[in-house]
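To the wet lab folks,

You asked to see what we're planning to order before we commit. Fair enough. Below is the target structure as tokens, and below that is the sequence we designed to fit it. If anything looks off to you, flag it before the synthesis order goes out.
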């Protein structure tokens, strides 16, 4: 993949140099040179690009999928292992205010 990008860069630089030389009344380019350049451009083939906006982020999406799956598994295991309400918090509520503890106990049951 890197070599094809490097080839594209070299072709672009060569075409820019020829265009700038032609603008500055530089040496005329022969038809043989133009034919060689066009042959080289055709040999490179079409440049594949993704017109879809979401396909630009596809490589990042697939890199994040395993990390996301691991986080989901860890969070599910954590929630199964620990209860949503801490027993210590319920004990402190009972010690401080028994009336509110009765209300909380009725709502949780």
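Sequence we intend to order:
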């Amino acid at each position: 993949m890197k070599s094809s990008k490097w080839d594209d860069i070299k072709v672009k630089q060569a075409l820019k140099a020829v265009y700038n030389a032609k603008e500055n009344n530089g040496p005329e380019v022969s038809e043989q040179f133009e034919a060689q350049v066009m042959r080289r451009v055709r040999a490179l083939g079409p440049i594949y690009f993704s017109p879809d906006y979401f396909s630009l982020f596809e490589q990042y999406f697939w890199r994040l999928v395993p990390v996301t799956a691991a986080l989901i598994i860890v969070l599910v295991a954590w929630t199964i292992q620990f209860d949503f309400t801490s027993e210590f918090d319920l004990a402190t509520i009972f010690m401080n205010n028994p009336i509110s503890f009765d209300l909380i106990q009725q709502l949780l049951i």
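Structural context that might help your review: The two ends are 62 Å apart (CA to CA). The chain has two domains: 1-48, 53-109.

Thanks,
Computational group
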